[in-house]
Amino acid sequence: MADEDFDVGARLKAMRMAANLSQRQLAALAGIPHAQISNIETNRNSPAVSTLRKILSGLDVSLADFFEPDTGAQAGPFFGAQELVDLTSRIAGNKTGGGRLRLRQVGDARAHNLQILHEFYEPGADTGELLLQHASSEGGYVVEGELEITVGDEVRVLSAGESYLFDSRTPHRFRNLSSARTIVISACTPPYL
């Protein structure tokens, strides 16, 4: 469940100021218009996951560190359902493309240089119009439902039982265009979120 007390804008502003960066400087580092930083910090805008991740890359901060700064990930080697690190539900309403996207991480991705995610895409969920792009390799398996995946110029809808693997430096996007929930298990190395 989303934490109503978590203020994405205030957290971003505090981190930007701690890094001694102006909104314009952070925007330049992240490669986005500076007005986006202002709109997020004042909570006029709730960012898509891809936009927030791009901004955080300018601060060299992961989504896990942004949302869970005071709690270290469980050491493992085993993890219960409640021990996964929730990377996305604290984004105000987490509405991207009219749908809800939830990402839960297994353990400490940085310590193992491997990020494993349990992903939920509600109908209409979308990682955002701003395509993701990062220096990693990633792959996943669709457990339930259908997921449209864009990798460069290629677009394909994968169904339960199908999978993907690609160089994440190629711009990419994930969307659930169906009327049912989609569940994916994915991995990325080195970790991105």
UniProtKB/TrEMBL annotation:
In terms of superkingdom, the source organism counts as Bacteria
Keywords for this entry? Answer: DNA-binding
Q: Which residues form the HTH cro/C1-type domain?
A: 12-66
Q: Which Gene3D superfamilies match?
A: Jelly Rolls, lambda repressor-like DNA-binding domains
Which GO molecular-function terms appear in the entry? Answer: DNA binding; DNA-binding transcription factor activity
Q: Which Pfam families match?
A: Cupin_2, HTH_3
Cellular component annotations (GO), alphabetically ordered: cytosol
InterPro entries per UniProt = Cro/C1-type_HTH, Cupin_2, Lambda_DNA-bd_dom_sf, RmlC-like_jellyroll, RmlC_Cupin_sf, TransReg_Diox_bact_type
- Stored SMART domains: HTH_XRE
Identification of the protein by name = Cupin domain-containing protein
